[in-house]
Structure formats: structure tokens, C-alpha cells
Amino acid sequence: MQTQKARVATGIEGLDSILGGGFPQGRLYLLEGPPGSGKTTLSLQFLLHGLSKGERCLYITLSETADELREVANAHGWSLDGLDLFELASAEEALGDGRMQSVLHSWEVELDETVKLILGEVERIKPHRVVFDSLSELRLLSQDPLRYRRQILSLKQFFAPKSATVVLVDDMTATGEERDGQLHSLCHGVVSLERLTLDFGPARRRMHVQKLRGVNFTAGYHDMTIREGGLEVFPRLIASDHHAKFVGAPISSGVAEIDSLLGGGPLRGTSTLLTGPAGSGKTNVALQYVWAACERGEHCCIFEFDERIGTLLARAESLDIDLSKHLASGLLEIQQVDPAEISPGEFAWNMRRAVEERQCRLLVIDSLNGYVTAMPQEKQLMLQLHEMLSYLNQKGVATILINPQHGLVGTMSTGNLNVSYIADSVVLFRFFESQGRIRKAISVIKNRGGAHENTIRELKIDGKGISLSAPLNEFKGILTGTPEFVGNTAHLLGHTSAQ
What we know:
Low-confidence stretches: 97-108, 495-499
InterPro entries: AAA+_ATPase, Circadian_clock_KaiC-rel, KaiC, KaiC-like_dom, KaiC_dom, P-loop_NTPase, RecA_ATP-bd
CATH class of the largest domain: Alpha Beta
Strand order of the largest sheet: 5-4-6-7-3-8-9-10-11
Strand content: 25-35%
Mean pLDDT: 86
CATH architecture of the largest domain: 3-Layer(aba) Sandwich
CATH topology of the largest domain: Rossmann fold
Distance between the termini: 68 Å
Structural class: alpha/beta
Organism: Stenotrophomonas rhizophila
GO molecular function, one term: ATP-dependent DNA damage sensor activity
EC number: 2.7.11.1
Number of domains: 2
Oligomer: single chain
Keywords: DNA damage, DNA repair, DNA-binding, Hydrolase, Kinase, Phosphoprotein, Repeat, Transferase
């Protein structure tokens, strides 16, 4: 039985997760992508991680100067001290007096002589990790695809017995026959980087592993970003890989009337959609659930797309709900999300960390409109949202989704975003007019977790908190916003304050 190859970690947590621990040791890999996609940053992280483990690492640069590489490193707060850097700085120096530093002029230096210099440096250093940046210069020297392929094959055969893990960087400038099968078939694995320019906001970057022989890697596209400190990769979420045992008990809001609407409250491992027009009480009800969970000692997380954190806390305080103490204790975390700056993959990764590292038990997304803004393609939105909710359900997390609708009154529609079929429970908020006042109504139209009330109640929000009326039996047409009174006003609550 063949023993499994040892893994060489890249030092990038998300990428190592995608690769199942890193690259198999002693193989040749292709890292390809257009300019600006993050190839140099990833390559430096790969080598510097090896350097931190006491390995000899060699960066062979044909397209960039040593000063340019140091500028990249300085931008991330890295030092290249200890990294072996081989730069072809001038043909005369490399081929005349045999010095190690030279600049490659493809019109002056023959391919064989250039490769000989590089291999000589490898023999001298005996590195554990090698980055060859970039192959475009070798392609120019080769002059024809056949000679280029043979040269890459000779490099592969040269490195094979040396147990060095080699990354070949390609900027994808070649077209046509030069690219057709030249590198993919020769390399043990292929990692492709992409840079996408959207109509608004910063460029989005993503990667996918096209192949990795003998490894069950995570296929598909994975979002990534480059920040000070390096490249971050956010693996695609696969809900079926994250099942955990839990008890699907109901969670209480601390308000008995609200809990009774859902037969005791939403169950753990389910998602609840709060949908209705702006100002109808959705966020306030969500905050009531958060406060009650924190009071029970459970960790809660709010991903806030629409409001500032200060505004949200002020709103809670007006309901006599003190969230500040739970923020200070760490039981509650509120993450302000800028939809123009974050990719859906990064959002899912942040959510996973809240659940897996900080044991979040109740998670609120406010609102889905903000999530839509972060995802230009609606098809992908629904797939990623469905996978995200499946993951949260399998981890036993109770999820509350807030979905603002257009307009103030209307039908029982859940709005322009068709997510009601994904959610396990749907709570509908509406405005209605009675006795010259605008009032709020609340009802449950779906609950997969069990029985629920089919009544409509008035929702009151004031300085004392949240309260509900008895069922509004003597009205009809409340959900349309134009109710017809068929009884007395005994069931109506007093004056209701704005949300």
C-alpha cells in the first residue's frame, strides 16, 4: 500500500482547509492568474511560512526585481530576511562572471543558459520550497510550444528526486496553442486566481483548485481578499460537512404572548423570517429574542447591514433592553457589515467563526436586503443563503432573518426576495388603521417546527418593552392594511409608539 505524501502547509488557513491540509510534499504545482489577482502575495506567504518552520526557501524572480518584492513584503509588514532570492539582474553578470544576481533580457540570453543558472542555484541552496515567478519569460525564450513544454518537463524531472515543493507562477498572458494543455497536464496540481471588477465597490477576488492529484480537495470557487498582513481565503461552505448533535428545544423571547405565537418559540436548529414593511417592529422583536438569550447566558451574534451599532443600542435602550452589559461581557457581538466591501464567501466565513470558535447559539441577520447588495447574482444568492441556513440548522443555531418589504401596507407576500420557502418559520408584520391611528399587527403564517397560532394580534412597542393584544377577532382585512371593524374596540391596545 502506497504511503500518503506529507503535506506542506501554505500558511493561509482557508487555502490549507480547501487543500485538506496543504500541498502534497515534493511535487510541482501551477499557480495561475491575471495580473493583480494575488499570485505574488500568495507565493511570498507560502515561502515565509516555510521559513518560519526552519525550511530553506528560494524565490526565483524573472519578472520582478528584488526591490519590488520587498515593497510587496513591506506593505504587509513582512521581512524577507532569511529568504533566498535569485534575481536575474543582467545577462553580463549572470553569464560573464557567474554572479547570482542578474536581469533577464529575453532577446540576449538563450533558454538553456538561463535554466542552467537557475538549476545551479537550486543545487547550491537545496531548498525545501521553491517559487518560480514567472513562466512568461521562459515561454518567450522557448519561442515555440513544443520546446516550452519540454523545458517544463525537464524542470519537473530535475526537482522530482529532491523532495522540494515547487510552485510555478503563470500570469496567463499566453493565448491559443501556447496555453492549450501546456502546463495543466504536467503539474501535480493547479490553483487558479481571478480578479473581478464590479459596477460598484472594490474588485472581488476568488480562487478555485482545478486539480490536485490524489487529494479530495474542496472544489468550486472560493472568495478571497488581500489585506495588510496577506491574502485571506474563505472556503466555500458545505453544510453537510458540519453536522453536530443538539436538542431542538424552543427558545423564549421573554414575552409569553410572542412565544405562544410559535408554539413556545422558534426551535434550535431552525430559521425564522421576520418580514414586513419598515418600522413595523421586526428588529425590535429580534432584539427581544437576543436579550432573552443573553440573559440565559447564551452567546449571540448580530450581523448588522442596515443600521449603525450605536443606533441599534439606542433602539434597544428605548425598549428598556440593556444590551450594553452583554456586549461588555462578550455574550453579545454585533458586527457592522459593509455590503460594498465584503464578499458572500467572507460573510459566511465570519459566520462560521462566530459559531465554531465563539459558540454562537442565536444569530440575527439584519437585513437580507443588505445581504442581497453583497451578492450581485441572485441565483448565487439563493444557493449560498440556502447553504448557510442549512449549516446553521445542522449546528443547532437558532437564526433570525429580517426582511424589509416595500410599501407600508399590502398582501401577505414576503416581499421582493423569495426566501420564505427557505425559512422554517415566517412571522408577518403589518400596519393597519383604526380609530385614526396607525397600528401594528403580527401573525405567524408558517412554522415547520410544530403548531402555531393562526390568529392576528396587535403589536405594541413602547418604553416598557413589547406587548401583544388578544386576537383581533372583531376585525377583518387587517393584512391588507384596510381593516373592516365588525365588533367593539375592547381588544385593541392603547396608543402605540413608533418603532
